[in-house]
Amino acid sequence: MIETLFFDALRSAVGPTAASYALLAVGLNLHFGYTGLLNFGQVGFMLVGAYGMAITVSVFGGPLWLGVIVGVLAAVVLSLLLGAPTLRLRADYLAITTIAAGEILRFLVRNTGSDALTGSVFGLRQFAGDFYALSPFPPGDYLGPLRFNANRLWVTLVGWGLVTLLSLLVWALMRSPWGRVLRSIREDEDAARSLGKNVFLFKMQSLILGGVIGAIGGMVFVLALQNLTPEMFLPQVTFFAFAIMILGGTGTVLGPTLGAVVFWFLLTGLQSGIRSVVDSGAIPGVAGGQAVGAVSLIAVGLLLMVLMIRRPQGVLGNREELRLDVS
Amino acid sequence: MSPDPALPTIPEGLRGVAHEPGVAKPDPILVVDGLRRSFGGVTAVDVEHLEIPRGLITGLIGPNGAGKTTLFNLLTGFDTPDEGDWTFDGTSAVGTSAYRVARAGMVRTFQLTKALSRMTVLENLMLGASGQHGERMRTALLPWRWRAQEQEVLERAEELLVRFRLDHMRDQYAGTLSGGQRKLLEMARALMVEPSLVMLDEPMAGVNPALTQSLLGHVKDLRDVEGRSVVFVEHDMDVVFDISDWVVCLAQGRVIAEGPPSAIGADPAVVDAYLGATHDHRALREERRRRREESGA
Questions:
Q1: Does any domain span residue B184?
Q2: Chain A interface disruption, residue of B88, B106, B137, most A CBs within 10 A
Q3: Are residues B133 and B98 in the same domain?
Q4: In this model, does residue A222 exceed pLDDT 60?
Q5: B198 belongs to a structural domain
Q6: Quick check: A196 and B107 CB within 8 A?
Q7: Which of A164, A224, B10, B273 lies 20 to 30 Å from A201 when distance is taken between CA atoms?
Q8: How many domains would you assign to chain B?
Q9: B188 touches chain A (CB under 8 A)
Q10: Higher per-residue pLDDT: A300 or B143
């Protein structure tokens, strides 16, 4: 039974959902970990990426590549809309604006008025055909005990491929003078200004790039599920991404990836574990699927708390840096 | 040169300049006109006319709340005035954002030092260099386009670290530096911008006496070795009189006195500003004398 649990957890930890959350966290890490931008609405970028692609393909019958471009452009536009009024202000304003924007977007797409475009509460489907047509894998079972079918293997490979590519991009950028300016803004934007750096421009670039990475995460997420509904874009998605980033190590290149793997391993492992205990009737009074979901989230929360107390800098973070963070 | 370096004489450029507020100078680098800034009902800065001489050290003094830091903030683009005009190096700088002011060559430091804690001392300095190609997002991904320049920046930063005796801290986080070392770091970092006018907001505050001497030496070097203009705010009068070529005294936002250090200490307006109105000052002396006599009797 332990073996089944382990493979269930591993299946999820290396799966496409973990990859898309890793992408969300890579973007968030650029915002928060490197630039100090408090973006509480990463799910909003995920949403516009996913809907931008799905609407283009499923409603207008456009090709997949066009859908991807539309999704990316939607994230750029959202960054400009959010950033222009708030990036000149203190950090908390961006936080308030982004969390509100995420919710506004979700209500917009689930509104019956936008039914023709977004499918309102029913969402959209039939936009992933082009994507799976590109798969080189013949139908079958892959990866032994992980039991991936061909489609899941394809989207997983693409997802983690993108994580690798975009993490490399962040790595290359952060070791450049551009990255140095971003980190200086995180430390003290007035100091950066006093040295002649156009802080607003750098913050905007960071917001756009991190937002686009989040949008790509959204596309991977819905391509894996082959459908999308507004309820996939609840505010908690952002907070999962935050948990993943902090768990892995804020301001580290590999932190988001490692965080996503560990987070989904724990969440799925606990879910399966608790479900099998509940199914065996060992806990009187607790029955059914809903209770399992809630209890496993509580358990993950507790585990994260213990981890943060034992290792506040995350798995890959630098403890000395954390001690200096008093400003 | 003066025969006795301990007693600063009036530099050539300022000889014959009257010792009065708002006086015109032969070659000013910064000229301020009708600058006003109020917070609510309080007028923090109300400068009719002020000229800062080029290539010299100007001390800005005044009691707490005189508006020294507000004036700094206004001139460097960190605050916006209600009205007023000022030119830096002949160009109007009104409404210019802080980063453009710095690029134009007017670089400031802060009263409360702003060390970039979670960056190394070396990174703090390298950040200061202006016109870095690698700071453009697209070029950042093409290391061969900025590597040579980065090497130059590195060499310049290392020279400054040696000069400011911070080279042993090169790879430490700036957050681990002491208060005095942070002042040094901030001054060195400002120099990386290659400014023509350096604005130092209380560079000696909280620095131990031994380090003060070395900081003073650095400030003098800015003028003597590098030919930069310096404006600095300071409360320690010994320091002000030691290194300033010219002293401007601010009180309640206004320039109330100007002159060489030798003249400013005796200026009644300055004494008033620091110790209260003249008659209060006399009353205080009377009071002291009476007490002395009483205790002696």
A1: no
A2: B137
A3: no
A4: yes
A5: yes
A6: yes
A7: A164
A8: 2
A9: no
A10: B143
Domain containing B167 equals 116-176
Question: Are A237 and A42 in contact, with CB atoms under 8 Å apart?
Answer: yes
Q: Give the confidence band of B2 by pLDDT, cuts at 50, 70, 90.
A: very low
Q: Which domain holds residue A230?
A: 2-324
User: Under an 8 A CB cutoff, do A193 and B192 touch?
Assistant: no
- Average pLDDT on B205-223 reads 86
Q: Does A325 touch chain B (CB under 8 A)?
A: yes
Query: Which residues in chain B touch residue A325, judged by CB atoms under 8 angstroms apart?
Result: 117-118
- If we measure between CA atoms, which residue out of B120, B114, B110 comes closest to residue B78? B110
- Residue B280: the pLDDT is 55
Residues B212 and B225 occupy one common structural domain: yes
Do B269 and B145 sit in the same domain of this protein?
no
Which CATH number fits the domain that encloses residue A126? Answer: 1.10.3470
Count of domains for chain A? 1
B255 and B109 in one domain? yes
Cβ A180–B193 below 8 Å, yes or no? no
Look at residue B89 and tell me if it is in a domain: yes
Q: Which residue in the set A178, A187, A196 is minimally distant from B117, CB to CB?
A: A187
Asked whether the predicted pLDDT for residue B150 surpasses 70, the reply is yes
| pLDDT value of position B129 | 96
The verdict on B102 and B249 lying in the same domain is yes
Residue B56 neighbours by CB under 8 Å, 6+ apart: B11, B13, B14, B223, B229, B230, B245, B246
Q: How far is CA A174 from the centre of its chain?
A: 20
Task: Report H helices in A14-90.
Answer: 16-28, 42-54, 64-86
Residue A327: band (very low, low, confident or very high) from pLDDT cuts 50, 70, 90: very low
Average pLDDT over residues A130-152: 92
A181 touches chain B (CB under 8 A): yes
With CA atoms as reference, the chain A residue closest to B174 would be: A324
Of A101-115, A150-164, A292-306, B270-284, the least confident: B270-284
Nearest one of B14, B21, B4 to B258, comparing CA atoms: B21
Asked if the Cβ–Cβ distance from B109 to A194 is below 8 Å, we say: yes
Query: Do A193 and B102 form a contact (C-beta atoms < 8 A)?
Result: yes
At residue A253, what is the residue type? Answer: V
Instruction: Quickly count: other Cβ atoms within 10 Å of residue A53's Cβ.
Output: 32
Q: What is the pLDDT of residue A200?
A: 96
User: Chain A contacts of B132, Cβ < 8 Å?
Assistant: 177
Above 70 in pLDDT, residue B283? no
Residues B164 and B237 in one domain: no
pLDDT at B79: 94
Average pLDDT over residues A184-211: 96
pLDDT value at B6 more than 60: no
**For A171, which residue in chain B has the nearest alpha carbon?**
B141
Q: How, if at all, do strands B91-92 and B254-259 pair?
A: unpaired
